[in-house]
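Example 9 (inverse folding). The structure is encoded as follows.
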């Protein structure tokens, strides 16, 4: 795959070792996705690799567990292990494929090549029990790769979903962050919902599927609206996170008036509190948490065409100059939270008024 590095693998072989491409980078290569570097596993001891690199006059950096060689290829060392032991690895089937760096012979202990061909995500029950975060990763990979969970994997995750409660919170935060920045994060959250993982990961969001969204054509419930809003939100983490939480408190604030109308009084304020709690738990910094909670708190702002200049200045002061235009992006995403197109005239109108009044605040 990388002819420039072949002398290294040849030298390792001559010294009795072997080297293999493996993991996510090999998977992406087989999927014909961009691969900035290849991950390599070798049976050659680290000290021997260093001598080989020096002998071949290759550049290398400080070595502990990782050796970085030219072209950003990474060598992970497993010293004094039989090659067959390397293939006894855990994880998603398509991430356990190995390919000999010299011969190109593929070792596929878990039928990962078949999964790639059939666009499936497979993982054993033991691997899910070992690392429950893989249930969240499976959903993210579904959205990232456009793959479906195999039937067996879907049922395994459904059965073990409660295990996600024991995952380190920062790991969850990292997965949520990576998922939100995908082109269609809704795919992942729908997988989490269908497998019950969301019930234990974000129970407030899972409950949104039970709440009717009666003001938007083509949308049946609040969860569905949130998914449309997520997919249509500006590609900025704070905006995406805001859309994830903006209506999350609707199940807790639902009220019915005498005429049968549904209301969600103060769902914006309560939603901001829920978001703060999760973001703090997941390890996000104070500034990010403040920004997201501010945007959620004010996402129901008055955007009426006849809004006064004074009211616009008041809104800018409440939200802050640094967040006011992001608030407009939030409103745009909120209005795009349905399959049918909707007018943005009100947003354009208030944007002009903000442009005019922001210098006076």
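The amino acid assigned to each position is listed next.
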């Amino acid at each position: 795959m990388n002819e420039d590095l072949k002398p290294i693998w040849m030298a390792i072989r001559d010294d009795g070792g072997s080297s293999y491409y493996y993991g996510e980078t090999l998977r992406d290569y087989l999927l014909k996705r961009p691969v900035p570097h290849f991950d390599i596993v070798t049976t050659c001891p680290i000290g021997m690799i260093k001598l080989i690199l020096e002998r071949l006059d290759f550049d290398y950096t400080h070595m502990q567990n990782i050796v970085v060689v030219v072209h950003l290829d990474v060598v992970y060392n497993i010293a004094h292990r039989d090659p067959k032991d390397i293939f006894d690895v855990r994880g998603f089937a398509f991430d356990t494929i190995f390919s000999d760096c010299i011969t190109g012979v593929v070792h596929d202990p878990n039928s990962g090549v078949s999964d790639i061909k059939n666009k499936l995500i497979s993982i054993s029950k033991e691997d899910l029990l070992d690392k429950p975060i893989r249930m969240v990763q499976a959903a993210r990979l579904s959205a990232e790769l456009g793959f479906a969970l195999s039937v067996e994997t879907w049922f395994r995750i459904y059965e073990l979903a409660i295990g996600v409660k024991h995952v380190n919170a920062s790991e969850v935060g990292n997965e949520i962050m990576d998922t939100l920045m995908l082109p269609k994060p809704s795919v992942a959250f729908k997988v989490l919902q269908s497998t019950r993982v969301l019930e234990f990961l974000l129970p407030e969001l899972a409950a949104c599927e039970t709440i009717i969204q009666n003001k938007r054509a083509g949308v049946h419930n609040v969860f569905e609206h949130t998914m449309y809003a997520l997919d249509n939100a500006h590609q900025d983490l704070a905006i995406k996170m805001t859309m994830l939480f903006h209506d999350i408190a609707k199940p807790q604030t639902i009220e019915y008036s005498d005429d049968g109308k549904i209301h969600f009084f103060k769902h914006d304020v309560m939603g901001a509190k829920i978001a703060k709690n999760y973001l703090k738990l997941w390890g996000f910094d104070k500034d990010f948490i403040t920004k997201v909670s501010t945007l959620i708190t004010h996402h129901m702002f008055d955007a009426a065409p006849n809004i006064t200049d004074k009211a616009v200045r008041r809104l800018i002061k409440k939200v802050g100059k640094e967040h006011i235009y992001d608030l407009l992006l939030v409103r745009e995403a909120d209005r795009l939270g349905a399959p049918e197109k909707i007018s943005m005239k009100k947003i354009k109108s208030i944007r002009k008024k903000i442009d005019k009044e922001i210098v006076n605040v």
